[in-house]
Design goal:
The chain is an all-alpha fold and 195 residues long. The chain has two domains: 1-52, Homeodomain-like (Arc Repressor Mutant, subunit A); 57-192, Tetracycline Repressor, domain 2 (Orthogonal Bundle). The chain has helices at residues 9-27, 34-41, 55-76, 83-100, 102-110, 117-144, 152-164, 166-169, 178-192. This is HTH-type transcriptional repressor KstR2. Residues 33-52 bind DNA.
Length: 195
Amino acid sequence: MARTQGSHSDITGPKVRDAALRLFARHGYAAVSMRQIAKEVGVQAGALYNYTPDKQSLLFSLLKGHMDDLLAAWEAEPKAGDALARLEQFTRFHIRSTVKTPEAIFISYMELRNLEPENFAVIEDLRGAYEDQLEQILRSGAETGAFDVPDPKIATMAVIAMLTGVNTWYRHEGRLSLSEVEGIYWDMVRKSVGG
C-alpha cells in the first residue's frame, strides 16, 4: 500500500536507518518526525512502519547497532601483549572508530536521554561492556605497576571522554593525518596514566 514504486525492503530499510541517523544528528531526535524521515527516504510516511514500529524503536536500533558494531570490532582486534601495548591499541582503535562514525557517536551521547527506560538500560549495559574493556586494561597496568591510576573507573571515563572528543574537531582534510592525531593522543593518554 504505502510503498513508493520500485522500493525494496533490502534497499529501503537501510535508507530509513541512514536518513534517521542523519536527521537525528542534525536536528535532534525530538525535532524529527517520521514524516521528515519518510520524505528524506522518498517513501510515504505510512510506509516507514514496514521498517520500524515507531520512532523510539528506530532510535534504539541505531544506538544498539552502533554499540554492537563497536564491541564486535574491538573483539575482532588481535590483542596486543602487555597493558601498555593494549592501552595504545585501545586508544588508536577508539579514535579510528569515532572518526569513522561521527553521526552515530553524536547521537549515542546526545540522544541517550530520549530512550525509554528499558531501552536506556540495554544501551547502558552495552556501553558498560565497552568501557569495561578499557577499565580492565588500566586495572591490569595498575596492578603490575605499569600505570599510576588510583581509580581505574574514573580514569576510564576520562580517557574515553578525551578520545571521543576527537570526533568534534578532526577533519580528514586538516593539517594532521589521522595517524598523527592518534600518535599525539596516545602520548597524552600514556602520560595521563603514568605509563
